[in-house]
UniProtKB/TrEMBL annotation:
Keywords: Hydrolase, Iron, Metal-binding. Coiled coil: none annotated. Residues 6-224 form the Calcineurin-like phosphoesterase domain. This is Metallophosphoesterase. Belongs to the cyclic nucleotide phosphodiesterase class-III family. InterPro entries: Calcineurin-like_PHP, CNP_phosphodiesterase-III, Metallo-depent_PP-like, Pesterase_cyn.
Length: 379
């Protein structure tokens, strides 16, 4: 066994300087802790020593230029490289405004953090000999520059990706983007609520990656700890720095002959100044704001409950989303009627036959990385 790389993943930072914080009583994000929580993580990463850090988008609260500038200045002080991709909160309108950045300005600002071509918001970088990173832009905009409801990879980006993959068939390649390309929730791609967090042309991406034997994607956006897999392709989505359970991941890639293994250990921010009981406070914060979400979930397909009935169950399920966000959840609500109970249990961390499969936080993944075949994109 040989260590190829040690790295970390921190997602959905939503960095907000104190004077920029939105004061909305219904917001899920505890952006008040974004800076002290990040500082705590960066101190830890400097102590343990890593080769690089991945940040899969939503770097700032809501596109604010001054929050981007603060983060760029802080990342520039680190002794290891950092790689970023834009999230939907990083560029809230294609052309920006006086307070927020455009997609072109985002690329210009983050030139030191992965971007090699100032004309395109995606990149390819060699991390180490034999190890590569492709950073994609999953932000899509309509003709007026307004953001799409879902993520999207435009045709030019997919064509560029084909060119990159064709030259990497003998290399281990990681892919990072903000929106999900695999489902992390039951029926996610068929649900209006779930589609919001996915790339709307996800099959066009995943087919290409599977054809090229790319084994790993790193994503964010959904604010949950989850590992999904499809035909040898793993997608590791990491929860948000500013919402329960305030996680981050430490990863170690090792070689075993011609095989690779990824060992993942997840950490949580337990407390920061002014928030001494962050975990408990944050879980309650999420539960207190869960009612509208649970009502939408229970009244939508496949349950289609009447609002009066859904209200009874929404209170019982106040900590349901916090359980999903924490990863490795096993749900059991015997007080619910059988139909609702069965549906809620489909969100548990189990195999199709119901066996617990707790791989969302701490796990070892053996990667299928057969190389040598000619890459033919599956369009």
């Amino acid at each position: 066994m040989a260590i190829l790389a040690r790295f970390a993943v921190v997602s959905d930072l939503h960095i907000a300087l104190p004077h920029t914080i939105w004061d909305s009583p219904s917001r899920f994000h505890l952006v008040e802790v974004s800076i002290p929580a990040l500082e705590q993580i960066l101190d830890h990463l400097e102590q343990v020593g890593i080769d690089f850090l991945l940040l899969p988008g939503d770097l700032v609260q809501h596109g604010e230029r001054e929050n981007h500038e603060w983060l760029i200045q802080r990342l520039g002080q680190l002794p290891f490289p950092v790689y970023v991709v834009p999230g939907n909160h990083d560029v809230v309108r294609r052309d920006g405004c006086d307070r927020t950045v455009s997609i072109d300005e985002f690329v210009h600002l983050y030139q030191a953090f992965g971007y090699t071509n100032p004309q395109q918001p995606y990149y390819h970088h060699q991390l180490k000999p034999g190890l590569h990173l492709i950073g994609l832009n999953s932000n899509g905009f309509d003709p007026n520059g307004e953001p799409l409801y879902t993520g999207c990879l435009d045709p030019a980006q997919l064509e560029w990706l084909d060119d990159q993959l064709a030259g990497l068939r003998d290399q281990l390649t990681l892919v990072m983007l903000h929106h999900n390309a695999l489902e992390h929730l039951p029926r996610q791609s068929g649900s209006r609520m779930g589609q919001r967090y996915m790339v709307n042309n996800a099959p066009e991406l995943t087919r290409r990656l599977q054809a090229a034997n790319v084994p790993l994607m790193f994503t964010g956006h959904l604010h949950v700890q989850d590992v999904a897999q499809a035909d040898g392709l793993y997608e590791i989505t990491t929860g948000s720095l500013v919402s329960y359970p305030h996680p981050y991941r430490l990863c170690e890639l090792t070689t075993h002959g011609s095989d690779y293994r990824l060992d993942i250990t997840s950490q949580r921010i337990e407390a920061v100044p002014d928030w001494p009981t962050l975990q408990a406070t944050s879980q309650k914060w999420m539960g207190d704001r869960s009612f509208p979400f649970m009502m939408k979930l229970l009244t939508s397909r496949p349950l289609h409950l009447e609002p009066t009935e859904a209200e009874q169950y929404a209170h019982i399920l106040r900590n349901f989303w916090a359980g999903i966000a924490g990863g490795d959840a096993l749900f059991d609500f015997p007080e619910l009627p059988p139909q609702v109970q069965r549906y809620i249990q489909t969100f548990s961390a189990t195999t199709p036959d119901g066996t617990p499969q707790c791989i969302d936080n701490n796990t070892s993944l053996w990667l299928q990385t057969a190389v040598g075949d000619e890459y033919v994109p599956k369009k």
